[in-house]
Write a structure and sequence with these properties.
Distance between the termini: 47 Å
Radius of gyration: 22 Å
Shape: globular
Strand content: 35-45%
Oligomer: single chain
Low-confidence stretches: 1-32
Structural class: mainly beta
Length: 184
């Protein structure tokens, strides 16, 4: 019995010694706060015609490896957009000066009839400040689908093709602020 216990201990030590340590991604932690995690976002709604101080809220998740996704209150068919949007899925990276640069895509459908309207590309630039906040701006661009329902879903162009021609779909540089969510 003593021999099998020693062998088991040796196997555990060998496993631990040969298992690579999981390290934080340099993009996630260098030059400022760690970005990986869950965030509450508040998009300034004034550029969309709302009163000063009104925000459109949402949730974002930045993952190791440079992927992220987010949803906001404009995704569910309500004002000011009256569209149903898919979740926004994309990629992020750390840029010069600790800036976070992200690009995502989402599909947009008319809230009244489900007709596929466009692919949308979101470009997000954030500047970390403090230990749990980021501020920046968002720009949204649209790539319209060509056919009405029920064929619109089949007529949406390839959003990552080099010939894809996105057009501005929101006021430029809409302010946004992210605050890290924490467990309570």
């Amino acid at each position: 019995m003593r021999t099998s216990g020693t062998v088991l201990k040796l196997l555990v030590l060998l496993t631990l010694a040969t298992t690579p340590a999981v390290a934080a991604s340099p993009a996630a932690t260098s030059a400022g706060i760690g970005v990986v995690g869950a965030w509450y976002l508040a998009l300034d709604a004034k550029p969309f015609g709302f009163d000063e101080g009104t925000t459109l809220s949402g949730l974002a998740s930045f993952q190791f490896g440079g992927t992220f996704q987010f949803v906001d209150t404009g995704d569910f068919g309500g004002a000011p957009f009256f569209m149903n949007d898919s979740p926004q899925i994309g990629a992020w990276r750390r840029s010069a000066g600790g800036r976070i640069v992200a690009t995502s895509l989402f599909l947009q459908a008319d809230a009244s009839n489900g007709e596929m309207k466009a692919w949308n590309r979101v470009e997000l630039v954030l500047y970390p400040y403090g230990s749990n906040r980021m501020r920046g701006h968002i720009n949204v661009f649209a790539l319209p689908c060509d056919l009405p329902a029920p064929f619109g879903v089949f007529a949406c162009p390839d959003p990552i093709a080099s010939e894809a021609s996105f057009m501005p779909a929101s006021p430029p540089n809409v302010p946004v602020e992210f605050t890290r969510l924490s467990a309570r």
